[in-house]
Amino acid sequence: MLDKDKGGHFTISPPSGLKITTKQQYLPSNNILQTRYMNDDGVLTLTDFFPRPLKTDHLDSTVGRGATIDPRGELKKWLVRRVECIRGATDVNVEVFPAFNYAQDSHTTEIIKTDNDAQRIVHFRSENLSLELIATIDCGDDAPCPELTFSKKHIDGCSLGEGVTATINLKEGQSVSFVLRDLEEKNKETVSTALLDQVQKDTSVYWFNWISKSKYKGRWREVVSRSLMILKMLTYEPTGAIVAAPTFSLPEDFGGGRNWDYR
């Protein structure tokens, strides 16, 4: 969005060149995003969300900075992306290319050896921030586990550091979950399919309970509810301040004059 050549990206998608139909939506009464890729050979569902604690009603400014609270109420500063094959079989391409400090800081990339056959780990380290990518494989019931092998790769013309790529063949019922989190996170939990199932459930229930407090029942209920949830995602919880404009200074027309501040 900010720089197509050296800006970071995290892509999970079917191989290019396939005839794909794509549908995308937030799950009902939720801020969990679902993208569905459909072709003749198979159907993939990609689920994206930031975890939300179920039991904590309000997070103050100490959360994430050493505060001791109920583990079920702790804010996990994770990006969770879960891809599942729900019909047939299809390949999935994964690319993770971080760009630290707005693509100003260089970084190193290390693929970590693990004893867990169902997990792959990559560490990205820059001067002021280090990230951990964890991929957890859910093999399904009937087929052998899908192969997942990360390889390092450079972006042409970018000297910031390497990213990783992988191609996975998923069959019906199989899935891979990716978690991107701070490598130096305190009280790090061991990521597993069961934990991510619970985290996703807690996040879903939180959003459902939150939007259920809305009293509006008119004809525009769905639009009003979605607007409320977007504003909630743009809110800094300790103070209640809302981000003025998430698209501030981004051009509407690259190279043109339609580059106004929409606030």
| Average pLDDT reading | 87
Helix amount: 10-25%
Poorly predicted spans:
63-72
- Run of helices and strands: EEEEEHEEEEEEHHEE
- The first-to-last residue Cα distance is 19 Å
Number of helices: 3
Percent of sequence in beta strands: 25-35%
Largest sheet: 11 strands, antiparallel
Written account of the structure:
- This protein is mainly beta.
- It has 3 helices and 13 strands.
- Strands 1, 2, 3, 4, 5, 6, 7, 8, 9, 10 and 11 form an 11-stranded antiparallel β-sheet that branches.
- The radius of gyration is 20 Å and the shape is globular.
- Residues 63-72 have low confidence and may be disordered.
Indicate the topology.
Layout: E1 9-13, E2 21-26, E3 33-38, E4 42-49, E5 79-97, H1 100-103, E6 107-112, E7 119-126, E8 130-138, E9 151-153, E10 163-171, E11 175-182, H2 193-211, H3 221-233, E12 235-236, E13 241-242
Briefly characterize the structure.
With 263 residues, the chain is mostly beta strands. It is 14% helix and 35% strand. The radius of gyration is 20 Å and the shape is globular.
What attributes does this structure have?
mainly beta; 3 helices; 14% helix; 13 strands; two-stranded antiparallel sheet; 263 residues; eleven-stranded antiparallel beta sheet; single chain
